[in-house]
Every structure is written in C-alpha cells, then in structure tokens.
C-alpha cells in the first residue's frame, strides 16, 4: 500500500553556503553533541560508529545527516534505544528532522527536551513505549513543525488542543494509543495545510466524524478506524477531493455510503468494513483509481454494477457478510490487477466465467447461491473457497490449468460427475474438501 504519510522531507541545500570558519566551529560542536547524545543513551552498541576517537567525519556516522557541515537530521529507527530522549539532542542547533521510531523509548513525552529544537520540522516517535498524557503546552514545539508522528505508543488521557496549534503541520499521526475523551476536532479542522491525519485505534468518546474536518481540503490520507465513530458519513466531507485513502472501518457508522465516495477520482483505498452501513451498492462508480475496496461486515444490499468492471487497478475486493444479491458482472472477474476477492456470506447468484483474470490468487465465496463451475482456467489461483453454494457442473476435466491451487474447498454444493484423474496434477494442494456433493466414482 502506498503510504501518503511517508512524505519525503527535503532539507535545504542552503546550508552549503555557510562561511568556512563558522561552519567548522559548528561542526566541532555537533561532533561533541553527538557524543553526549550517545552517552545519554548509555553508549548503546547500535551507536558504535559514533566514536569520538575515530577519524571518521561525524557526518558519516550511522543515522547522521549533515547539510554542509552541520547536523540537520538524525534517523535512528530500529536502534534499540531505551529510556528517554537525551537533553543534548536539541544542542544540534540546526536539527530539522528527528526519527526515533521503532525503539524502546519509555516514559512521558520528552517535552522540555524537544521544545529546545527550534528548527525541528519532522518528529517521529512512533512505535515506542512512551506513555502518560501529552503536555498541554505541546504547541511549544518548533513553529516550523510539519510532521508529528506519535503513532503506536501508549499515550493516554485527552488529546490537548495545543497539538493543533502548530500552524505548518502537514501530518498529524496520533493513532494506536490509549487516548480517551473528546479530541480537539475544531482546532484540527483549522490546520489548513494538513495532508495526513491518523486518529485510528483510540478509545475516544463516541462522536460523529467532525464537520470541521470538511475544511481539511488538502487531506490525502484520513485514518479514523476503531475510534467509536457514530452517525452517518456526512455529505459535508465531499469537499475532501484529494483523498487517496479513507479508512472509517470498525466504527459504528450507520446510514448509506454517500455517492461522493464513489466519485472522488483520487481515491485509491476505501475501508468502511465492520460498521452498520445500509443501503444499496452504487450504480455509478467514477472513482476509477480504486486499488482496494473493503465494505465487509455491514448490511449493504443491491447488486454490483458493471461500473466496478472499470476499476482497472483494483487488487482487493472485500464485500463479505452483507446482503448483496445478483450476478457479479464478468468484467469484474477479468480485472487485470485483481488478486483477492472475499464475497462470502451474501446472496450472490450466477456463475463465474470459465476463464478468470490471470492475477487472481484467492477467492472466498462461500455461503451464497452461486451456480456453475469452479473456474476452468486460473493459472495463479491458490485458494478457492465456495462452500454451501449451488455449483452444479462437473469438475474441470483438465485440472492442470489450476496448478497453483493449495486449497480447494467446495463442500455442500451440487457438483456432479467423476473426480477427474487430472486432480493428481494439483501438486501444491494442501487441503481438499469435496464433501456434500454428488460426485461419483473412485478417488483417483
Ligand atoms: C510517521 O509519520 C511521518 C509523517 O507522515 C512519516 O514520514 C513516517 O514514515 C511515519 N513513521 C513510520 C514509522 O511509519
Ligand atoms: C544553523 O544554526 C545556527 C545556530 O542556531 C544558526 O546561526 C544558523 O543560521 C543555522 N544555519 C542554517 C542554515 O539554518
Ligand atoms: C469490529 O469493530 C469493533 C469495534 O467497533 C472491534 O472491536 C472488532 O474487533 C472489529 N471486528 C473486526 C472483525 O474487525
Ligand atoms: C458500537 O457497536 C458495538 C457492537 O457492534 C457495540 O458493542 C458498542 O456499544 C457500540 N458503540 C457505540 C458507541 O454505539
Ligand atoms: C492505475 O495505475 C496506473 C499506474 O500506477 C496509473 O497510471 C493509472 O492512472 C491508474 N488508473 C487507472 C484507471 O488505470
Ligand atoms: C438470500 O435469499 C434467500 C431467498 O431470497 C433468503 O431466504 C435468505 O435469507 C437470503 N440470505 C441472506 C444471507 O441474505
Ligand atoms: C468439509 O466441509 C464440511 C462441510 O463444511 C465439514 O463438515 C467438514 O468438516 C470438512 N472436512 C474437512 C476435512 O475439513
């Protein structure tokens, strides 16, 4: 999945223009500072290259990036760093980017330390063990802050409104923590430059998607799953025309999916699964760049329109556990990029075409009313689950055209005729369930 939150951060080449004498002084200072930082973390093995005795230029030490001669970035992900962030970090006066993700940092948000990084634009503390409430003056981080990533920690308490008082923010990631209460929706709604917002996976107080978010018209990524959202998907959010990812899954959304969702042409990832959405599938879909659609575990009805067959980039279609009826247009089975189709527990009828898209690997379509045959030619198909349908043809005589199958499960259908001898050509097969059919003759 493309991650819009992974925005490249360009550090100004301007630093090259620093006057020689001044920059060498700064450089010496930075070297000492790096050594102090290393000491602050207890001289961990991952920072062995930060050796004051070594002849190697500190700008070449692991994780260190300089602009000209001064340190501008520290990229210290997966360095097994523990404890808190050493106070010396912000003695690097030109530090703009600090990535400490995927470590074992613990304790409270290192506020006093980080407020001194006056040029900081990018702060990634994600995937650590930081806890406690965020400080109410978190807006004292550098006013240049563009990216604040606090995902996957154990922060708790309410999200302070000050988190949205950093005027240049382009990404704000607070997902997968233990935040509670109401989050500062009105304040976040004023962050006009916001492109990526992730609030998923927090026990917020039940509330609808804030109307204030309709003003965030630069948003490309909106992640709001598993955070107790109630109410309908609002019409007002149709203003978010730049969205490439919309994730409102695992909430308590009610009502129908608004038409704008199927019109936004930049949308690539649509996750609305595990809600209580009702209404019919759309008749018109012009969001042709969709790559993944997951609407499973809802109460959706209606039929799949031919328009879904125009989604040339669709790789993943998940509609299981709804009340969808009708035949799936053949054009969908032929979509060139389609890999995974999960449509079990609906009320689909009709048959699959004999030949399906050469990329499909997994089809889960049990508990429907499909008739016809299993696909006859599907060279890449690895798993086919179609239990409890009305498949009523014989198994394909030449099963060699299904040679990638590892799982073939079609119990409780009306499959007739003999088990073809060519079933022996399914050399990758790990599980086979043909029970509850009308097969005749011996197992070859
Ligand atoms: C944290 O968020 C920033 C900004 O969106 C992003 O560039 C970075 O890759 C994220 N970190 C991780 C570990 O995904
Ligand atoms: C680097 O930091 C020093 C000290 O704060 C400052 O004087 C200088 O202007 C900075 N250089 C750049 C290019 O930001
Ligand atoms: C559905 O969402 C609820 C939260 O609303 C969550 O607890 C549950 O694990 C989710 N189930 C699935 C299958 O994602
Ligand atoms: C959301 O739905 C789940 C069951 O799907 C229910 O347990 C929970 O109480 C609901 N929460 C709200 C806020 O309505
Ligand atoms: C599909 O993806 C390709 C390559 O990323 C892109 O050029 C194209 O515009 C996308 N959309 C459609 C409808 O093919
Ligand atoms: C499917 O349709 C049949 C008859 O139309 C109905 O009895 C059954 O309850 C439906 N199943 C689902 C899962 O909606
Ligand atoms: C085959 O499917 C039937 C019906 O779903 C089930 O009862 C049986 O346990 C399955 N057999 C195996 C070996 O998994």
Automatic annotation (TrEMBL):
Subcellular localization, as worded in the UniProt entry: Membrane
Name the UniProt record assigns to this protein: non-specific serine/threonine protein kinase
GO molecular-function term, one example from the UniProt record: protein serine/threonine kinase activity
Signal sequence range: 1-24
A Pfam family per the record: LRR_14
Membrane protein topology class: Single-pass membrane protein
Catalysed transformations (reactions): L-threonyl-[protein] + ATP = O-phospho-L-threonyl-[protein] + ADP + H(+); L-seryl-[protein] + ATP = O-phospho-L-seryl-[protein] + ADP + H(+)
Keywords assigned: Kinase, Leucine-rich repeat, Membrane, Repeat, Serine/threonine-protein kinase, Signal, Transferase, Transmembrane, Transmembrane helix
Residue ranges annotated for the Leucine-rich repeat-containing N-terminal plant-type domain, each copy included: 29-66
Disease resistance R13L4/SHOC-2-like LRR domain location: 97-331
Gene3D superfamilies noted in UniProt: Ribonuclease Inhibitor
The enzyme's E.C. designation: 2.7.11.1
GO cellular component: membrane
Source domain of life: Eukaryota
């Amino acid at each position: 999945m493309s991650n819009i939150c992974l925005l490249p951060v360009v550090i100004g080449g301007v630093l090259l223009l620093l006057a020689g004498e001044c920059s060498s002084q700064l450089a010496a200072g930075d070297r000492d500072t790096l050594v102090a930082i290393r000491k602050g973390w207890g001289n961990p093995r991952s920072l062995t290259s930060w050796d004051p005795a070594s002849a190697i230029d500190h700008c070449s030490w692991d994780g260190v990036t300089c602009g000209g001669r001064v340190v501008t970035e520290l990229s210290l992900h997966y360095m097994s760093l523990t404890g808190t962030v050493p106070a010396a970090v912000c003695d690097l006066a030109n530090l703009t980017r600090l990535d400490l993700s995927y470590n074992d940092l613990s304790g409270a948000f290192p506020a006093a330390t980080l407020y001194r990084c006056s040029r900081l634009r990018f702060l990634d503390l994600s995937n650590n063990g930081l806890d406690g409430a965020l400080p109410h003056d978190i807006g004292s981080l550098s006013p240049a802050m563009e990216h604040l990533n606090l995902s996957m920690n154990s922060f708790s308490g309410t999200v302070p409104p000050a988190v949205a008082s950093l005027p240049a923010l382009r990404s704000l990631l607070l997902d997968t923590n233990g935040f509670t209460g109401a989050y500062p929706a009105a304040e976040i709604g004023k962050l006009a430059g916001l492109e990526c917002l992730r609030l998923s996976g927090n026990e917020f107080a039940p509330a609808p998607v804030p109307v204030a978010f309709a003003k965030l018209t630069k948003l490309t990524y909106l992640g709001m799953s598993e955070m107790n959202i109630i109410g309908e998907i609002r019409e007002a959010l149709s203003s978010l025309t730049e969205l490439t990812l919309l994730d409102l899954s695992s909430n308590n959304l009610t009502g129908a999916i608004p038409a704008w969702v199927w019109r936004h042409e930049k949308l690539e990832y649509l996750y609305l699964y595990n809600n209580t959405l009702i209404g019919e599938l759309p008749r018109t879909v012009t969001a042709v760049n969709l790559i993944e659609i997951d609407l499973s575990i809802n109460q959706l009805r209606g039929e799949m329109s031919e328009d879904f067959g125009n989604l040339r980039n669709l790789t993943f279609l998940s509609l299981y556990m709804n009340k969808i009826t009708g035949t799936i247009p053949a054009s969908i089975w032929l979509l060139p990029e389609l890999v995974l189709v999960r449509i079990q527990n609906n009320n689909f009828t009709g048959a699959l075409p004999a030949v399906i898209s050469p990329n499909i690997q997994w089809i889960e379509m049990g508990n429907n009313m499909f008739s016809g045959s299993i696909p006859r030619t599907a060279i890449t198909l690895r798993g086919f689950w179609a239990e409890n349908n009305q498949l009523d043809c014989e198994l394909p005589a030449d099963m060699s055209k299904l040679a990638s199958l590892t799982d073939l499960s079609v119990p409780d259908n009306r499959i007739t005729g003999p088990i073809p001898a060519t079933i022996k050509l399914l050399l990758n097969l790990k599980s086979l369930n043909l029970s509850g059919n009308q097969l005749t003759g011996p197992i070859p």
